[in-house]
Amino acid sequence: MKNIVSSIENLSTDPEKIKLFRSYGTMVVLKNMGKVTGGLDKEYMSFLMETNGASILDYCFLGFKNRELGLNLYENIMDLWQADNSLAMKFWAFAGTSAGDAFGYLDLKNKKGSHFIAYYTPDQPEQVTVISSCFELFMRKFIAEIQILIQANDDSFWIEDNTWMTSLEGSSVDDVELQDFLATNRSAYYKLIG
Q1: Are 128 and 120 in contact (CB under 8 A)?
Q2: Domain 2-189's class?
Q3: Residue 152 half-sphere exposure, CB side, CA atoms within 13 Å?
């Protein structure tokens, strides 16, 4: 996870675009991880041990007791479950945007025991789109897209085209388990109800 955090640090020197929160220490994470109903994904926990949350353009990766981010991870999850109860105990949102879109982990696990990652938008309630078989592979794809956006010298603070999430073509990340999921289900949507 150190490589992921280093990659985030190297994205931009502009503190308005990229902020990491390394000064909080690991004890804050260890003391609060039990507050996440249903448990904390082990890869996301490793990320939080390196930086207690992150602000990457308009994308906010939540941590614990981080006043600069304003909301705790476990509060965000509960708020989202209350807004769309089909997500409860199925989708744990760890990151979001100002528009209400969210990235989170699912109750579906990969072969190594990490959780699949999905995307949720309030424009399409009661459904999520599976985008990665684990947090680390998701972050590699996400960082690559952010890097393209920043290098374009664009003043944009979000990725406008979301096709990167489900596109397997041209991706520098080889996600075999995601490919298997898509082939088996013939869809990127994850069934939340029934």
Answers
A1: yes
A2: alpha beta
A3: 12
Reported as a single tens digit per residue, the pLDDT across 28-57 is 999 999 999 999 999 999 999 999 999 999
Q: Under DSSP, is residue 166 helix (H, G, I), strand (E, B) or coil? A: coil
Q: Please name the residues in contact with 46: beta carbons below 8 A apart, sequence gap of 6 or more.
A: 1
Spatial contact of 14 and 30, defined as CB atoms under 8 Å apart: no
Question: In this model, does residue 95 exceed pLDDT 90?
Answer: yes
Domain ranges across the chain: 2-189
What strands, in cross-sheet order, belong to the sheet with 102-109? 18-20, 54-56, 59-61, 91-96, 102-109, 115-120, 128-132, 189-190
Residue 186 region by backbone torsions, left for phi larger than 0, else alpha for psi between -120 and 50, else beta: left
- In angstroms, the CA 34 to CA 41 distance is 11
